[in-house]
Amino acid sequence: MYKEIDLIIKPRCIDEYKDGYPLISKESITSWDKVSKEGTIINLLDNKKKFIAKGYYGKQNKGFGWVLSTKKEEKIDVNYFKVRINDAIEYRKNFFEDTSTTAFRVLNGEGDRVGGLTIDYFDGFYLLTWYSLGIYQFKEEVLEALKSLTEYKGIYQKRRFDTKGQYLEGDNDFVCGEESPKPLIVKENNENFAIYLDDGPMVGVFLDQREVRKTIRDKYSANKTVLNTFSYTGAFSVFAACGGALKTTSVDLANRSRAKTKEQFEINNINVEEQEIIVQDVFDYFNFAVKKGFKFDMVVVDPPSFARSKKRTFSVAKDYVKLLKEIIQITNKDGIIVASTNCANFGMVTFRDFISKAFKESHKKYKIEESFSLPKDFKVIDEYRESSYLKVVFIRKLS
Ligand code: SAH
Prior knowledge:
The chain is α/β, with parallel strands linked by helices and 399 residues long. It folds into 3 domains: 4-69, Archaeosine Trna-guanine Transglycosylase, Chain: A, domain 4 (Roll); 78-181, Transcription Regulator spoIIAA, CATH 3.30.750; 206-397, 3-Layer(aba) Sandwich (Rossmann fold). The protein has helices at residues 14-18, 78-91, 93-97, 133-136, 139-149, 210-220, 235-242, 256-266, 282-292, 316-329, 348-361; strands at 5-8, 23-24, 41-45, 51-57, 65-69, 103-108, 117-122, 125-130, 154-159, 174-177, 184-188, 191-195, 225-229, 247-252, 276-279, 296-301, 306-308, 313-315, 331-341, 366-372, 391-397.
């Protein structure tokens, strides 16, 4: 590895780092002049040159690197990653033992003290996602550590290293071991998902919504009509159908969503003919549904934080109230709206304000039944609550 470089922290940031704050922000360092190579190990010192923490340089949208250790003598080598990954595996022990769920997160970046890297498990296969060129410099060490600790079938990776976190297209995502079946069938609370580890940036399911899907299936779906907007591969629709929904309607703009959703239904033995899959802009679908007088008992809304289509751009922070108002119009009285967002720029309080505003402006009443944030495997540390991005609220429309 590269030699370690000392950087001086600005006085106002020293206490934060002493308390375990993991993000090395651009602003917290007096001068970055000495560092140019991604992956450089940096020692953060106070203005009297006293050691505070050790991390690496790796540019992401969030900052310039992550703290890896508060021990001065610690080497960032195979052994370092072995300890971190082993702790992470221990913490998810119950997940490894649970045969009804075979897909979950094993290491959650800074939540497991390795900012910039996540590791997901898919029935014996491991998927590494690298969020900067900096952390990618430790690929060999991480792989060696992971291999020594697990009985893996195969290992895959996604590289998302430009500062916008975008996936590098054209990558070969296979790393080593066996190649995974296409699709790889994994289980989540006894239902099936088709996973493609080597088919672009997304693998077919977002693991962070596991508890929400279970709740939809177990508590809210029986004999209900369900609309799933921004449905992607229809994961929420599958769980609604498995929970006894009368019918599901899945709406997504992407052409691929039709075949992907059909496949998810089929591998769960759900009759696709009884479900509706619509490839359309959701805002056009809302106009159509209002015109036709369609109403649903449950509407799920889980949009991307930002989306640009031919007709419009959508940003959750700006447009969620508008989106909810459309949905309120097509939800039955006593029906449920499952409102979700993975936008990290605002918290639950703001999200609840959006909900309140949308109902107020629609002159309707509501009650919050329950809410969710990230599940246990998406570990978050108290020193960095900012990484707890997920907010999901089950809202009952009362009038
Ligand atoms: N709710 C999904 C994940 C959504 S990912 C799940 O639980 O799996 C976001 C999806 O929104 C993508 O599939 C994308 O194609 C879709 N999308 C983005 N803008 C859209 C729009 N205007 N209308 C419909 N779908 C849209």
